[in-house]
Amino acid sequence: MTTQEIEFGLDSPAYVSVDESGQPLNGDVVIRNTIEEAVFADAVGIDSFNISEHYRPDFMDSAGHVMLAAIAGRTERIRLGTAVTVLSTQDPVRVYTEFATLDAVSNGRAQLIVGRGSLTESFPLFGFDLADYETLFEEKLDLLTRLLRDQPVTWSGTVRSPLTDQYVSPPLPEGHLPTWVGVGGSPQSVIRAARYGLPLMLAVIGGPPSRFAPYVDLYKRALNEYGHPPLPVGMHSHGYVARTDEEAVDIQWPYWAEMLEASSRERGWARPTRKKFQDEIAGGSLYVGSPETVATKLAAAIRLLGLSRFDLAYALGRVPHEQRMATIELYGREVIPRVRELLQDPPVQPIPSDQRSAGKDAGSHV
Amino acid sequence: MFSGETGDRRLGIVGAGKVGTTIARAAIAAGYDVAMSGSGTAERIALTVDVLAPGARAVSTDEVVRHADLIVLAVPTHRFRELPRDLFAGKILIDAMNYWEPIDGVDEELATAPAGTSVVVQDRFPSARVVKSLNQLGYHEFEEGRRPRGVPGRIAIAAAGDDRAAVAAVIQLIDRLGFDAVDAGPLAAGLALEPDGSVFGLSSSADELSNLLWPEASSA
């Protein structure tokens, strides 16, 4: 087992970026730009491209599966995933059909992360009550895992119509469409992922990664208690890579501040300051800096938490497309190889990423 | 550090999520005997408590109430009404909850409460002695902000309540957990401690916090 087994991906929300004069781009342009970014990511050796799911005028990721299919048609290697699929307000049967089809179209490269996401517009939009979140997520995760693991499915619950001996097409080859559970820090969510025997994806967007070490411990112990084999743990965090630390900070800061300023007004958080930005870079979970700075910080987090996967949510906010491409290039060509190098000495032993699900028999895979 | 009576250092926590487990860790470190519960059986939270609040006991909610006179309410805000009205009779109930519409959904009563959400909680549990506290810092800041008394720059946490003896007990808890304590006044004054209130999310000293709560009273 080598550090080559660790997967390094990118996350994109297809956020509406600006052109050179600071004017927001049209949404369709943003969508095509995002596809270009993914195709470029494939060219520079990045392992996956993962699109989120929002329903707001500043995000163009409402139908990520369509974008992923377009990317599939122009690439042969990069994995194509979500980060995250807001399962509570989706129909698990549709999620299955869309992504099993994407898997076939891409010759086996589809993957999912299901979770809450941080914004909740999908609830009123699709007629759901946030107070039902737990029930919606639990039942839909139950149905989705049945569809993934063991068809035909007989299922009933309170959140959608029942299924009786139902086949849903296309059939998935064994081990395809690995499905991770995205977790923000709720112990209950960590335990749920373990109960279902699904790999864990930590959203680490504030504070030092060490804060999450107890959650990794909880996950491992819960897996053991439920009789599952060890499963991979991944992390996603925000960042921006440039030639130097100063350049990275100078490029990312105004867009970070702009985004947090809007959120702080909307959600009652403390207003963003440059000091808070610097503090988060220095000791938290913003991977902003030169390739060496970012690689060093990332290797430390991977080592500390025993990660098998890291996805960089690159270029937060309205960062222009050209600068997004520049950071993708540095991440793929310099950061990732450097992280692998740093993890050789001493060597780390990540959970093999093909051991992505406890499967229907919950036995060991290898 | 310990008083003569063990009853003085017993804490109950209803809720074993991020907030409940964070408060439990701080209380264990401060020498408290902590019992905590979740929404189901004790078994359901046993592993969580073992890993995230080692030293605390995972029990039923009824057992939490029997265990201590001082109880922290740290359940998801949209679920507190599931608890029976007389559950916390005679207990000091620290309302550590925050109402967030993106998490809790639309709740007209909480969203429009003129004197803050803790007054709604007090109405729900009329025989409890509700004190609003432990909600104003993010759980990360709470975890990392704990300091022994007398350390310069120690962060302050406020407590608001109509029952003055209950507020005094909570102030003692805050101090032992590692923060300076500021008496914010009656329960309705807790409005300032809520997510859209003037002091929410700020890491301030006791003086700074007092000035924010009573700007007219600050000296020149």
Q: Could you describe the 3D structure shown?
A:
The complex is a heterodimer of chains A (366) and B (220). Helix content of chain A is 43%, strand content 16%. Chain A is built from eleven helices and twelve strands. In chain A, the strands form two sheets. Chain A has an eight-stranded parallel barrel with strand order 1-2-3-5-8-9-10-12, surrounded by eight helices. In chain A, helix 2 packs parallel to helix 3, helix 6 runs parallel beside helix 7 (213-225) and helix 10 (291-305) crosses helix 11. Residues 360-366 of chain A have low confidence and may be disordered. With 220 residues, chain B is α/β, with parallel strands linked by helices. Chain B contains nine helices and eight strands. In chain B, helix 1 runs parallel beside helix 7. The chains are: A alpha/beta (366), B alpha/beta (220).
Biggest sheet record of chain A: 8 strands, parallel, barrel
Rough outline of chain B: globular
Q: Report the end-to-end length of chain A measured between terminal Cα atoms.
A: 12 Å
Please tally the helical runs of chain B, counting DSSP H or I stretches of 4 or more residues: 9
Any idea what the shape of chain A is?
Answer: globular
Order of helix and strand elements from N to C terminus of chain B: EHEHEHEEHHHEHEHEH
Q: Largest interface, by Cβ-Cβ below 8 angstroms: which chains and how many residues each? A: A-B, 25 and 26 residues
Instruction: Count every helix of chain A, treating DSSP H or I runs of 4 or more residues as helices.
Output: 11
Q: What percentage of the residues of chain A does DSSP assign to strands (E)? A: 15-25%
Helix content of chain A: 40-55%
Cα gyration radius of chain A (Å): 20 Å
Spell out the helices and strands of chain A N to C: EHEHEEHEHHEEEHEHEHHEHEH
Given as residue ranges, the uncertain stretches of chain B (5+ residues, pLDDT < 50) are 1-6
| Major beta sheet, strand line-up of chain A | 1-2-3-5-8-9-10-12
How many strands, which pairing sense, and closed or not: the largest β-sheet of chain B?
8 strands, mixed
Strand order of the biggest β-sheet of chain B: 3-2-1-4-5-6-7-8
The residue-averaged pLDDT of chain B reads 92
| Straight-line distance between termini of chain B | 38 Å
How much helical structure, as a percent, in the residues of chain B? 25-40%
Low-confidence stretches of chain A: 360-366
